[in-house]
Design goal:
- The structure holds two protein chains of two kinds.
- Chain A is built from three helices and no strands.
- By secondary structure, chain A is an all-alpha fold.
- Chain A has one domain: Helix Hairpins (Orthogonal Bundle).
- Chain A is elongated and about 50 Å long.
- By secondary structure, chain B is mostly helical.
- Chain B has two domains: about 70 residues; about 80 residues.
- The relative contact order of chain B is 0.09.
- In chain B, helix 1 runs antiparallel to helix 2, helix 2 runs antiparallel to helix 3 and helix 4 runs antiparallel to helix 6.
- Chain B starts with a helix and ends with a helix.
- The chains are: A mainly alpha, B mainly alpha.
- At the A-B interface, helix 1, helix 2 and helix 3 of A face helix 1, helix 2, helix 3 and helix 4 of B.
């Protein structure tokens, strides 16, 4: 049994749906900034799933592990966003466009 | 099952979807993103997630603010002015998205069907991965093979569409 209460189940299902929406942003948006927003949703969905899986189970050990995972994920999505924005800024200064389809040749 | 939690979750997911759909207008997209963060904070607060809900909300809002500041410097606030995606690429991306979402929905459905679906406080259980595997490669083997072939055909179709698009360029 994974879930012992319905709140945790709802949160995990919501996290899966949110990850799907994040992938929608990555697949449909051509703007690099729009893709970053989609990636942000995907990262937050991981944090929500961690809360649903571990924190709400009532077990202190699982809660501590889940909390640590949420903190790690949160730190990582901060780093990912700032690094991604730095790449976007460098890309625009070099090529003058936000179009992700124009960045498929690794030409800098 | 708390009604407030369900409402908050639905509002959060709707706002996230809106943020993606409204992506050509950065201001509207970010506004929907802030609504998502607020609804998510409310949902996690109702779910008694404790200070972790604050961590997720504060960092999420912070990241949206950074994207807003950089985004407003990088793109036009009203529209990103990128040319419209051509039809084959749009179809290929939609197919890839639907296939990915279909796989996720399939996994959740199998997990829910092999467990118990909770309504009004009764426990919601998802089956462990081993039981899902035994089900997929046991009684549902033929259906699994059929779905696998369908997904493979869809992926090949996506690749084919993208190949046509590249040759056209």
């Amino acid at each position: 049994m994974i879930f012992e209460n319905s709140m945790a189940g709802l949160l995990v299902i919501g996290a899966v749906a949110l990850f799907w929406i994040g992938m929608l942003g990555l697949l449909w948006r051509r703007s690099l900034v729009g893709m970053l927003v989609g990636l942000l949703f995907a990262w937050i969905s991981v944090a929500i799933a961690a809360i649903g899986f571990a924190v709400l189970q009532g077990d202190p050990e699982k809660a501590a592990a889940g909390g640590a995972l949420v903190l790690c994920v949160s730190s990582l999505f901060c780093l990912q966003t700032t690094t991604g924005l730095a790449i976007v800024v460098a890309r625009i200064r070099r090529r003058g466009t936000l179009d992700a389809d124009d960045a498929d040749q690794l030409e800098g | 099952m708390s009604v407030a939690l369900c409402v908050g979750l639905v509002v959060a997911l709707g706002s996230a979807f809106g943020a993606i759909v409204l992506g050509r207008n950065l201001t509207r997209s970010l506004l929907a993103g802030y609504v998502f963060i607020a609804a998510l904070g409310f949902t996690l607060f109702v779910a008694d997630a404790g200070f972790l809900s604050l961590v997720v909300v504060i960092l999420g809002a912070l990241m949206l603010m950074i994207i807003q500041v950089f985004g407003w410097m990088l793109v036009d606030v009203d529209q990103d002015h990128l040319p419209a995606t051509d039809r084959p690429t749009w179809i290929a991306r939609s197919l890839a998205f639907l296939l990915f979402g279909g796989g996720l929905i399939l996994l959740m459905l199998i997990a829910l069907l092999t467990g118990e679906l909770a309504i009004d406080g009764r426990p919601l259980e998802l089956a462990p991965p081993s039981e899902i595997g035994a089900l997929l490669f046991g009684p549902l083997r033929d259906a699994t093979i059929l779905i696998g072939l369908t997904i493979a055909a869809g992926l090949l179709g996506v690749l084919r569409l993208l190949q046509d698009d590249a040759q056209k360029d």
